[in-house]
Amino acid sequence: MQFRVIGRGEETVRVSAIGLGEMPLSLAGRPDEKQAIATIHAALDAGITLIDTADAYCAGPHEVGHGERLVAKALATYPGDTSSVLVATKGGHLRTPDGGWYVDGRPEYLRQAAEASLKALGVDVIGLYQFHRPDPKVPYADSVGVLKELLDEGKIRFAGISNANIEQIKIADEILGGRLASVQNQFAPNFRSSEGELVFTGQRGIAFLPWSPLGGIGRAEETVRRYPAFAEVARERGVSPQQVVLAWMLAKGDHVIPIPGCSRPETARSSAAAADIVLTPDEVARLDAS
């Protein structure tokens, strides 16, 4: 298993190069709790030490924090050592009764959400807390200012942002005094518009966490069909196309930590194994051009 670093300056943590995206274990259509916990345990067995969730990973507003509570239960019931596991969560994105989504970046709400996440996770300090999505009704600096307060108060160990452009990354890093630890944006073979942010974070030493790296829930096979170069390299390597996708992302920089969503133990183990695949420059170029 390769490892990567989250954090800058004196405060850093070493995590697995592949993380676990918890979202498929909490949205509508999710597996039962037994399978969900088995999936998280399989990821831990495979060496994964970064688990990403959010308060909004749930079936609706009646169960906000479902994903966080699930992660807390999985960690509490895991028979091995979990002291090196970094749990990342997010606030500022909410669910509607009909299963939709909306944003709330008001400082007072984000503080309330962070306090609720502390309770849902059962911790005194959140490992990595991220502003989930910009709210067009609220100045971005005001929303990020809450992260600075939480960081200064010791309620979160690391601060991150999600679904951000380069200008927002600059604003966040300035407000946080150079302590912005991560940017979590969508990035996949079928969604490469965040490559500019991927490159920019690498220049700044900020971790970049691609979400939905395989194209989205239930879309991995469709994504591979649209980009056959990944399947070609996979056949040559004797691995799965999905593993090649993750290895391709890792090759883009030692700050990149994909967080594929998994709903079965076998997919968690397969994703973790992708960290051991080192692509050649020629292979990376073929995939970049696809």
CATH hierarchy: architecture? Alpha-Beta Barrel
Helix share of residues?
Answer: 40-55%
Strand order of the largest sheet: 3-4-5-8-9-10-11
- Determine the N-to-C terminus distance: 27 Å
Give the count of structural domains: 1
Question: Would you mind describing this structure in some detail?
Answer:
By secondary structure, the chain is α/β, with parallel strands linked by helices. It has one domain (3-218, 252-276): TIM Barrel. Helix content is 40%, strand content 17%. It has a 7-stranded parallel β-sheet, with helices on one face. A two-stranded antiparallel ribbon has the order 1-2. The longest helix has 15 residues, at 107-121. It starts with a strand and ends with a helix.
Short account of what is shown:
With 290 residues, the protein is an alpha/beta fold. It is built from eleven helices and eleven strands.
Keywords, please?
11 helices; TIM Barrel; 290 residues
Describe how the helices and strands are arranged.
Elements: E1 3-8, E2 11-16, E3 20-21, H1 33-45, E4 50-52, H2 66-77, E5 86-91, E6 93-95, E7 101-103, H3 107-121, E8 126-131, H4 140-152, E9 156-162, H5 166-175, E10 180-184, H6 195-204, E11 207-208, H7 220-226, H8 228-237, H9 241-250, H10 265-273, H11 281-288
Parallel strand pairs: 3-4, 4-5, 5-8, 8-9, 9-10, 10-11
Antiparallel strand pairs: 1-2, 6-7
